[in-house]
Every structure is written in C-alpha cells, then in structure tokens.
Design brief:
Length: about 575
C-alpha cells in the first residue's frame, strides 16, 4: 500500500459532541464546554481520535447555534473562550484532535453583517435580497408577511416550513432563508463575503484546531435568477434546485486553496440531499475541490416519506445497495464518511435495528458495519451506549424548530388534525430524538446536570438502565464492544484501506463482505484480508463464506456474542439474531 495514501483522518474514529446535551458543568440544565472538558478522560478511555464539536458560537439559538451572530465568540450558554481553550487543551493532551462545526451558508439575522445589510450599509449586497412580485401574476400563494398584493420572489419553501423568503420592513425587500427566518443566506457570489468567511476559518485554525465540518456546504451557490420550482415538490424545488449550484465547486475549491491548502486537516462537507456519487467525487477526489470527505444523505432517506412523520417500508437490500454504491463508487476517487447517527438523525437502533428485544445485539451489529467499511466512522454521543429514540408525549416536549414549526403549520393548514395523529411518525424522525441528554449515571438527571436542575430537553425514559456507569462495569455491554471495535480498526490496516466486496447483495438477512489489501502494509505486518458477516435480523440465519475464504485459518477477531478473539477456521455457521463476526487472516 502506498504510504502517501495514509492520512490520520482516514484512520481516525471521530466522536460527535452536541454540547447542549453532552455534559452540564455549571448545573443550569444545559450542556456546556466545562462539562465537556470534565469528560475528556471518558473520550480517551473510549479510544476516539477526534471530536467534532457542534457550534458553540455566539447565537440567539433559533436553531441551537446554527444561527451564528459572532463567529469569533463563544456563546454564554456554553461558557467562554477560556472554557473553549480548556477543551482544546484537554483533548490535545490526550492525543484527541478537535474539529469545529462551521456554518458558511447563513448567519443569524442578529449578526452585525445582516444588520448593516438591511440598512444598505457596507455589507448591503452580502445577502440574497430581492424585490417581491405581483401576487396576481403568480401561481403560488402570497404570504401575509409582506406588503399587500406582493408575493415572495419565488415559490421556494424553507426546509423548516413556510416560504423561503421573509420581508424586511427596514430595507423594504425580501431576503432568502433556506432554513429559519432568523438564518438569512449569505450571497457567496460576492467576493467580500467569501473573504470574510475565510478570515473566520483562519481565526479558528490559528487557535489550533484540526479541521472543520462545513454545514450544508453544497448550498452556497444559488441558481441564477431564483427560478420557481415544481409546485408538487414539498420544498417547491429548493431541495432540487439549490444543492450543487452553478459555482459551488469554484467556491469550495477556492476555500481550500485560500485556507486549507498545506495544512493536515479533516475537512468534511455536509452535502444536504446529496445522493450522487459522481457529484460527491468532485468535492473529494485528488484533482477536485480538496475536501477530505463529505456527508451524503443517500442512506438516511431510506424508510422516510416526504413529510416529517411519514414512514415507508424498507428492506436490508435497500441499505446494502446504497452502501455498495458509495463503497465502490468512490474507490480510487475519494474517501467515504461513515455514519448513521448525528444531531439531525434519529437513533440508529430504533431506525434500522431492534430497540426492544435485541437492543444490545442490533446496536453492536450496526456498529460493526460502520467500523469495518472503507471510510472514517463517526460516533454520535450515546451511540456507544446503544441509546434509542425517546417517546415524546406532546408537541410541547419538543425543542427542535423544524419539528415544532412543521407540525404546527400542518395543523393550521388542515393537513393533519392534531399532533397525536402523527405522533408515532414524529417520534421516529424528529431531530430531537437524538438530542436528549447523554446518560452518564442511573442517578438523578442521569448525571447530565445537577440533581435539582431541569434539563433543557427531557431525559430519555430508559436512562436508569442505559447509561455509562452501568455499561462500563459490564464487559458485555455496547460500550465495551465499541471500545473493542475502535481498537480492532486501529490494529488492522485492511479494515481501513482494504477494498470492499459484498458477497450477499440480494440476501434479506445476511450482509457478508470482504476487505482485501492489494498489498499488505508494512507498518505492523497487519493482516491483509478480512471477512465480515452480519445477521441483520432477529432470526437465526445461515452464513456461507465466499469460496476464496472458506476453510481459511483466521482469527475470529470480534463477535458480539463473545468477548475474546480466538483462532478459527472460516466455515459456514448458523448466525444468532443480530450476530456480528469479524475474521482477519494473513
């Protein structure tokens, strides 16, 4: 294997921290940086190599920090710059890198840039401003948020519900917000906007961080003329017309050359709605835009309908087809990110596993997949415990702006009768399903905050049995399995760099694949082949190894039904419900 192809971020396991819900250091019910610093030993014990930290910038918190009012300040909710530097130092002292979440597409409407822009000052053209149109001449509904008889510039819908344009009385024009009205989109066609954003990125690099997650980076370039979208589309075209706009690769490549070039960074771009491998390759291939990897959305759409609460039937072969497409499609062209959970996605055990009878087994089986494919695995806080979706009993229990606004608008429009009518679906897909507090202990407030504090969002109902304290004392727990998985991937180059081949693409129970290094790396004489078999079901299933591996002497390096590696011969066997096995061989 070419040593030049190695990168620390390819070999790393990244742990995502959603600070509001991770650990509360001051006892006010909201997670903060002091709480994160106090848990640095925990992250080191788990064995992760990097932390992706969700936004902690100064913000009015309309979207939990993704509405940035000052890119160079820490919000009081989370502490101070001194607290942030303490986190950085605590992680670096334990050889854990720090990746910051950066929001380049939009700011808060309380940012100085927007306030100056609405007054037509020095930043007058930094946002997408446009005049409205005569409401009598368009086929889409006018909004009561603008002047009488005037409709927004086009029919796009915000991803959070409602029109994607808001009228500003001071400027007497409409501004674009693909998300909340308090998140106006920046106009990246303006050179001064791009340079201002590059300055913010450089600021944090000068503070010693190790990379960035770039929020909705593929939305930066808007289509010329703001064309109307298909009125039958739930977003009226916004999700189809805006991603990967006409100048997007120019902007991302320029960002790389101006800021990232010559630095050893993890740069991962969130590409909302992205399902195309060829388009993704343009961001990450060696002669492309320069990103290390992207987050695509191809697999997280499985089982979801057009509305937040709608669910569809899915099959294991659907999931395999997506992962196969990305594993083979980016081979030789770029690097994959591997994730199921994050702050915007429901808990994977509830979504693709079994959160009742086989919670532990399905959690560890799914984890085995992500840590034995080609790409960088991302672990979202609580995933290493096998946390599941909570059950919200009323709309008042939700904190997510997207969930609350979408359901309320549907009720007002008469599309649904009540929250109760869609409760099951909302509980399955709301972003809040993954945002309940981290479960540290079986004690009051799960050890997340002070016993007498009120957490900013309700605790999961199972926190007394599913928590760090309990699982660290149980060597058969999900937590200990994650620890072994991380060690296993670190020990065997084949699980990082080996080629992938799926041997059961049409099987609805068994997912069996091999990883093969064309040339064994010299770093530690690591094994050059691996065979991974997953029974993705609650029933027993027969596993037949591929002929090239059958009868091979190997090490059963990991199995979620046993604790210790053991010598083995690769033969057919009857897999138990949700059983995962990883064999490695010379």
């Amino acid at each position: 294997m070419d040593e030049a192809a190695r990168s620390w971020w390819k070999e790393a396991t990244v742990y995502q921290v959603y600070p509001r819900s991770f650990a509360d250091g001051d006892g006010d019910g909201v997670g903060d940086l002091a709480g994160l610093a106090d848990r640095a030993d925990y992250l080191a014990d788990l064995g992760v190599d990097a932390v992706w930290l969700n936004p902690v910038y100064a913000s009015p918190m309309a979207d939990n920090g993704y509405d940035v009012a000052d890119y160079r300040a820490v919000d009081d909710t989370f502490g101070s710059m001194a607290d942030w530097r303490a986190v950085r130092d605590a992680l670096h002292e334990r050889d854990i890198r720090l990746v910051m979440d950066f929001v380049p597409n939009h700011t808060s409407d309380e940012h100085e840039w927007f306030q100056t822009s609405r007054r037509r000052g020095a930043t007058a053209d930094w946002y997408h401003w446009a005049d409205g149109v005569d409401a009598d001449t368009v086929a889409y509904d006018a909004t009561d948020e603008g002047p009488d008889g005037e409709a927004p510039p086009n029919n796009w819908r915000s991803f959070f519900g409602g029109p994607a344009w808001a009228y500003d009385d001071e400027r007497e024009q409409w501004y674009l917000h693909l998300f909340d009205p308090k998140q106006p989109d920046l106009d990246w066609s303006v050179p001064a906007v791009r340079e201002a954003m590059y300055d913010q990125l450089r600021y944090w690099l000068d503070e010693g961080i190790d990379g960035f997650r770039l929020d909705v980076v593929n939305l930066l370039s808007k289509p010329d003329g703001y064309p109307n979208g298909d009125p039958d589309d739930p977003f009226n075209g916004a999700l189809r017309l805006v991603p990967n706009g006409p100048r997007i690769h120019e902007y991302v490549a320029e960002m790389h050359d101006a800021v990232f070039a010559g630095r050893d960074l993890l740069t991962v771009g969130e590409c909302i709605g992205e399902t195309g491998v060829d388009e993704a390759a343009r961001y990450v291939r060696p002669d492309g835009d320069g990103l290390a990897m992207i987050f695509h959305f191809d697999h997280v759409g499985i089982g979801r309908g057009e509305e937040l609460w709608e669910r569809e039937e899915w099959a294991l072969t659907d999931l395999k087809a997506v992962f196969d497409r990305w594993q083979t499609g980016l081979e030789g062209r770029g690097w994959n990110s591997l994730y199921f959970n994050n702050h915007d996605q429901p808990r994977v055990v509830s979504r693709f596993g079994d959160d009742e009878e086989y919670r532990r087994e399905s959690a560890t089986c799914i984890a085995t997949l992500l840590h034995t494919l080609r790409g960088t695995p991302y672990v979202y806080q609580g995933e290493e415990l096998g946390m599941t979706n909570p059950t919200f009993e009323s709309l008042a229990e939700f904190r997510d702006v997207e969930t609350v606004r979408t359901v309320r608008e549907a009720i007002e429009a008469g599309d649904i009768d009540s929250f109760e009518a869609v409760q099951e679906g909302v509980n399955a897909h709301s972003r809040d399903t993954s945002r309940t507090p981290m479960q540290w202990t079986s004690g009051p407030n799960a050890g997340f905050t002070a016993p007498d504090a009120e957490p900013w969002i309700r605790l999961h109902e199972d926190h007394r049995t599913v928590n760090v304290e309990t699982q660290r004392t149980d060597t058969t727990s999900v937590w200990h399995y994650y620890r072994r998985l991380i060690d296993l991937r670190e020990a065997h180059d084949v699980l990082v760099y080996g080629d992938y081949e799926n041997h059961t693409p049409d099987d609805e129970q068994v997912w069996a694949y091999t990883r093969t290094l064309s040339e064994t790396a010299s770093r530690d004489a690591a094994h050059g082949r691996a065979f991974v078999a997953l029974n993705w079901s609650g029933e027993a299933a027969r596993v037949d190894p591929p002929s090239a591996f059958a009868g091979t002497e190997a090490t059963l390096a990991l199995c979620n039904y046993s604790e210790s590696p053991s010598p083995a011969t690769v033969t057919a066997y009857e897999a138990r419900p949700w059983e995962a096995r990883v064999y490695v061989m010379e």
